[in-house]
Specification:
alpha/beta, D-Maltodextrin-Binding Protein, domain 2, six-stranded mixed β-sheet, 2 domains
Length: about 450
């Protein structure tokens, strides 16, 4: 009798398992597994991600997640060096962030799990923004962690004291570059209350600046594209950094520091972070990544706002983010994919969006009014955020991470050339014309992935 009962139960288990697979789902293992999740970011981002991982463990009690927090620098060199060491020692984590500029290189070498079958099985292909999925040779190996872009924040108190009206928020109606520079001069003040252009203005004794731009590769693109320029063509073989439009855009940014004196020399001039300057009423505008809203939202004494980016010739925006991948070496690919899905689903990790860290990659959180309100209607996102930031994604162009050797092109050639422009050693025309020749004569122009 017992043997018959055992056989009957076994049949039910087999039928149940078959039912799961027939319905396109695979149950996560009942055995306790441990995943390592790697990521970078500010201390505030570290806390937000750890909370999301803790919530995941509650929802999936058979999975333990070990956070691997690597506070790398913005250009990714620290993070990339760590990742290279982990790959060489065969100690890569299971899932997590990956630097976008190295994505194609690692994907081509087989470090990432191919996701297409999993996406199809779980109905994820069409429910996310099309820019989200990252393909190499027709296969999907990763997804952008978020839909991030460039944003211009401002200190309301500073603008009011300078007599500046609140800036436009419609991304199509941002100030012209000339209007922008004029406004920055009214904000910039030396210790005696004089502004750039005033008789006796002391450029070495400035107590309040008009603006600070983040000066690293991804943050250059919107200004360059707004002026009709580019760096390397998407074919990965054509150098465009010496186009007149590109040269002009870089020179206009450099002139903010070296000619108009409305922007501090952030590449060695001051050790105070722009966020601190903004909070201390030492700065009017800060042009940076959207993710800095996470830190702004914690500054309770700062009354900040958001403005449309200034326009050189046309509105422009960048779609930029870290990449989320499942590493091919993971011994628990199904559980790792389950964690990646969790981190991509705003309904599971809403705090990552309401806190200002990320913008969603899921379609409905832009197109459905109820879903949009879930992450935008709060005290962190200032009035006008939708018009200035969310709506600007309509013209966003993906960061050109699929150009082969793009990270090395920046590291070996472009960064030092651009640095010479910022510090005033060379004009943009001199620096970019010289570096364009060097890049063309290098062996790095090998097309795109």
């Amino acid at each position: 009798m017992k043997s018959k009962v055992f056989v009957f139960i076994s049949i039910l288990i087999v039928i149940g398992t078959g039912f799961c697979f027939a319905n396109g789902q695979k149950a996560v293992s009942d055995d306790k597994v441990t995943l390592k999740y790697i990521y970078w970011g500010s201390p505030a981002e570290d806390a937000a991600v750890k909370q999301a991982l803790s919530d995941f463990e509650i929802a999936y009690p058979t999975i333990k997640v070990e956070p691997m927090y690597l506070p790398g620098d913005l250009d990714g060199s620290t993070y990339n060096a760590k990742m290279k060491a982990l790959a060489a020692s065969n100690t890569l984590p299971d899932v997590g962030y990956f630097r976008p500029e190295e994505f194609g290189n690692y994907a081509e070498k087989g470090y990432f799990l191919k996701l297409d079958d999993l996406m199809t099985r779980d109905g994820m292909q069409e429910s996310y923004l099309p820019q989200t999925w990252l393909k190499i040779k027709g296969n999907t190996y990763g997804a952008y962690s978020a839909a991030e872009c460039q944003v211009m924040w401002y200190n309301k108190k500073v603008l009011q004291e300078a007599g500046i009206p609140l800036p436009p928020t419609d991304y199509t109606e941002g100030w012209s570059w000339e209007e922008f520079v004029s406004i920055l001069k009214k904000i910039t003040t030396d210790s005696k209350g004089k502004h750039p252009g005033d008789i006796g203005f002391n450029e070495k004794d400035i107590v309040r600046y008009g603006v600070s731009y983040d000066l690293w590769s991804s943050m250059y693109y919107p200004s360059v594209w707004s002026n009709g320029g580019d760096i390397i063509d998407v074919d990965g073989k054509t150098v465009l950094v010496d186009k007149p439009e590109t040269i002009e855009a870089f020179q206009k940014l450099a002139d903010l520091m070296n000619v108009h004196h409305v922007m501090p020399h952030m590449t060695g001039g001051t050790n105070i972070s722009p966020l601190t300057m903004l909070a201390n009423d030492q700065l009017g505008f800060y042009v940076t990544g959207q993710w800095t809203l996470l830190d702004l939202g914690t500054m309770k004494d700062l009354d900040y706002g958001v403005a449309a980016l200034p326009i050189m010739k046309k509105p422009a925006q960048i779609y930029v983010s870290g990449v989320n991948v499942v590493f091919n070496s993971s011994k628990h690919p199904e559980e790792a994919w389950t964690l990646q899905k969790w981190m991509m689903d705003p309904s599971k990790t809403l705090d990552l969006y309401t806190s200002g860290l990320w913008m969603p990659t899921k379609q409905s959180y832009y197109t459905d009014a109820n879903d949009l309100a879930k992450w935008l209607d709060n005290d962190v996102h200032p009035e006008g955020f939708k018009e200035a930031v969310v709506d600007s994604m309509a013209v966003a162009v993906n960061e050109p991470i699929k150009i082969r050797n793009i990270n090395q092109i920046w590291g070996d050639y472009l960064n030092s050339a651009v640095e010479s422009i910022w510090i005033g050693d060379k004009t943009a025309e001199e620096a970019l014309t010289e570096v364009a020749v060097k890049i063309r004569n290098s062996d790095l122009l090998q097309g795109s992935y």
